[in-house]
């Protein structure tokens, strides 16, 4: 098992070496990157938006119900919601959601191409198939995922605002002042960095599993499942490591 | 001219190719025949460079495949056209885009020139009025034709066909065989066809290599095929009902 683990790391490193070779034609690379941005990031906007709005609302209710102490200013509900969204939910939780959506998409797409010999066909044309298929996915997801996170942040806060307005669980002015209280801009950078790192793991690990898929449609399904599991574990592990390194 | 010298290949210690030495001539349809599991596809993939042999060499004219660097091999592969068993035409592209795909990477032609060349190749393989269709909308025979059109798009010097008739009806099989034979003569390509279809072998095979359990047991022309002394080949030929009484 340990041998398999190190073998997989070695193959993954060699795979990244193939992916990060200079593209045959930059024009084709940029065109593919735009297409991948549409397929991977823009198509995720809806699911991320829906989840963010609802989680923002739920966070407000949960935080307010746990802060009933009259000595605590109700403004702290807004503050806590903002901090939860910025520090953890909008990067880690959204990344976990993307690991499922984007990861299975990438692994199954590339895996199907592998078992139907389309990747072999590309290689036999003299094209770096790993570079052509994977690099645009990595670049577009790493560069654009922070925008998805910022959108999630905004919608989460908006969701909280809507719940405050509708339920009057705390005064709206308190919620707004809590959102503005003791704001640290570095947290946004920290979250953007985490999101980009997580999306690098999601796209590269899913592509790696798809690229080396074997055994027909069963193999494609297996590679897709493995991608999600490995990416999710790495996201949680590196969440801890990055947080320790950047915030403490 | 392609030469294979003392090729050995094994998987997990199990030998699949054992000391194969064989030559393939230009302008001829060279057939690799043998039972399922005899090592035909492994031999073809070693010749194409999709697999690395344990030992032995593959020569393309004066160029040794194993001595080529990654860049040299990729450049060299532009001279190679491949028709895969399952066609391996790209799901994400239309018929026209599939044929234009290698041109996008390796030519500086204008779009009009690429379209013109792609249409010429499609007409040559008699695929008409289907250029805007996706592979899933095509029959198996049509997919093979598109695969051939893509393989000849850049005027290759070498054409490799892995089981070109698998999954096709006898009539379409004959058409595909004739197309391969005509193109071989027309472009003076070195063509290697991997098959166990006796009709193909007798129809277009100029030079035939028989492989059994990873060993090359016989090589000769189709005129000598039915009078061979090789008992394994005789058994193989007799398994075809139509040839049973014609084999020596």
Distance between the termini of chain A: 34 Å
Report the strand count of chain B: 10
Q: Count the DSSP helices of chain B.
A: 9
Q: Categorize the overall geometry of chain A.
A: elongated
Q: What does this 3D model show about the protein?
A:
The complex is a heterodimer of chains A (248) and B (248). By secondary structure, chain A is mainly α. In chain A, 84% of the residues lie in helices and 0% in strands. Chain A starts with a helix and ends with a helix. Chain B has nine helices and ten strands. In chain B, the strands form two sheets. In chain B, strands 6-7-8-3-9-10 form a six-stranded mixed beta sheet, with helices on both faces. Chain B is globular and about 55 Å long. The mean pLDDT of chain B is 89. Chains A and B meet through helix 5 of A and helix 2 and helix 3 of B.
Task: Please supply descriptive tags for the structure shown above.
heterodimer, A: 248 residues, mainly alpha, 9 helices, B: 248 residues, alpha/beta, Rossmann fold, six-stranded mixed β-sheet, 37% helix, globular
Give the arrangement of secondary structure elements.
The complex is a heterodimer of chains A (248) and B (248).
Chain A: H1 2-19, H2 26-41, H3 45-65, H4 75-115, H5 118-124, H6 129-167, H7 172-180, H8 186-211, H9 216-247
Chain B: E1 2-11, E2 14-24, E3 29-33, H1 40-48, E4 55-60, E5 63-64, H2 70-76, E6 80-83, H3 95-106, H4 111-124, H5 140-151, E7 158-162, H6 170-187, E8 190-195, H7 198-204, E9 207-212, E10 215-220, H8 222-225, H9 231-238
Parallel strand pairs in B: 3-8, 3-9, 6-7, 7-8
Antiparallel strand pairs in B: 1-2, 1-4, 4-5, 9-10
Helix pairs in contact in B: 3-4, 3-5, 4-5, 5-6, 6-7
């Amino acid at each position: 098992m340990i041998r398999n683990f190190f073998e997989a790391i070695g193959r993954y490193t060699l795979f990244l070496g193939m992916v990060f070779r200079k593209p045959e034609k930059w024009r084709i690379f940029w065109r593919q990157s735009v297409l991948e941005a549409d397929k991977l990031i823009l198509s995720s906007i809806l699911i991320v938006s829906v989840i963010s709005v609802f989680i923002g609302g739920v966070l407000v209710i949960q935080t307010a119900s746990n802060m009933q102490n009259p000595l605590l200013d109700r403004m702290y509900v807004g503050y806590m919601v903002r901090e939860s969204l910025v520090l953890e939910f909008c990067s880690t939780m959204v990344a976990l959601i993307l690991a499922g959506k984007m990861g299975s998409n990438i692994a199954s797409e590339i895996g199907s191409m592998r078992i139907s010999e389309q990747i072999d066909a590309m290689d036999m044309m003299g094209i770096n198939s790993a570079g052509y298929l994977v690099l645009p996915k990595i670049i577009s997801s790493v560069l654009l995922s922070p925008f998805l996170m910022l959108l999630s942040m905004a919608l989460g806060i908006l969701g909280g605002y809507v719940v405050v307005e509708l339920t009057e669980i705390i005064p709206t002015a308190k919620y707004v002042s809590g959102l503005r209280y003791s704001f640290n801009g570095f947290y946004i950078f920290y979250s953007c960095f985490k999101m980009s790192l997580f999306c690098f793991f999601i796209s590269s690990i899913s592509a790696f599993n798809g690229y080396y898929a074997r055994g027909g449609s069963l193999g494609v399904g297996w590679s897709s499942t493995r991608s999600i599991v490995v990416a999710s574990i790495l996201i949680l592990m590196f969440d801890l490591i990055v947080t320790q390194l950047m915030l403490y | 001219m392609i030469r294979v010298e003392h090729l050995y290949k094994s998987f997990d210690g199990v030998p699949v190719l054992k000391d194969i030495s064989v030559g393939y001539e230009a302008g001829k349809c060279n057939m690799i025949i043998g039972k399922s599991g005899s090592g035909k596809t492994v031999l073809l993939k070693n010749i194409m460079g999709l697999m690395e042999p344990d030992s032995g060499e593959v020569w393309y004219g004066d160029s040794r495949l194993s001595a080529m660097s990654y860049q040299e091999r990729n450049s060299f592969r532009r001279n190679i056209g491949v028709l895969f068993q399952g066609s391996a035409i790209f799901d994400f592209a239309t018929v026209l885009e599939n044929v234009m795909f290698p041109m996008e990477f390796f030519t500086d032609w204008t779009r009009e020139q690429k379209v013109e060349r792609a249409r010429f190749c499609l007409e040559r393989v008699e695929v008409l009025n289907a250029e805007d269709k996706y592979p899933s909308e095509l029959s198996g025979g049509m997919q093979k034709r598109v695969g051939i059109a893509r393989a000849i798009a850049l005027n290759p010097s070498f054409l490799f066909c892995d089981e070109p008739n698998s999954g096709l009806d006898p009539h379409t099989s004959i058409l595909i065989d004739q197309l391969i034979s005509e193109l071989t003569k027309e472009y003076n390509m070195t063509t290697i066809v991997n098959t166990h279809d006796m009709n193909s072998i007798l129809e277009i095979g100029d030079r035939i290599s028989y492989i059994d359990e990873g060993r090359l047991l016989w090589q000769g022309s189709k005129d000598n095929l039915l009078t061979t002394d090789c008992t394994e080949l005789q058994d193989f030929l007799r398994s075809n009902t139509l040839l049973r009484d014609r084999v020596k």
